[in-house]
Each structure stands twice: as C-alpha cells, then as structure tokens.
Amino acid sequence: MIRVVLPAHLRTLARVDSEVELDVASPVTQRAILDALEARYPMLRGTVRDHVTLKRRAFVRFFACDQDLSHEPADAPLPDAVATGAEPFLIVGAMAGG
Question: Residues near 84 by Cβ (< 8 Å), separated by ≥ 6?
C-alpha cells in the first residue's frame, strides 16, 4: 500500500479525512501513483496534473523522504520507503505571492 498525503483543499474535494492508501503495482513512480489516485478519485483529475499533457501543475510539488521530487522524471522509481508504505508520498500546494 502506498500512502499519499493530499493538501487540505484536495482532501475536501476527494471527501477524505486523512492520507489516502493506494494499491500501486511495481515499479512505484510518480506517474503510477497519480494514475492510481485519479482512477480512485476521478474528481481529482486535472487538479494535480494537466488533463492533456499529464505534467505537474505549476503550483503543485511532490515530496517523499525529505526530498523534493517535483522535478524528477514522472517514470523514475520512487524511494523504497515510499514503495513499501513506510513513508508517504506528499502532494503539496506551493505558496506564491509577495
């Protein structure tokens, strides 16, 4: 089971109270997690990544194991701690403004 932590506004949209657990086949990648997330919670399609290009939205970041994975390739394997469910995959809304 992969653990995914969503920002508050996406938890509200998906109607979940805490982290989400997903079955993701190996290899565990950002793309595989997001595919599983959108399949289970279709209301999240287009919120984390673009509908057409499937690229991460500009103000969304991905973290795991104290690392910013936002600019890693979508098909790069994630750390083993994420793949085993020991550590969550975090989807974070970036802050902007001044």
Answer: none
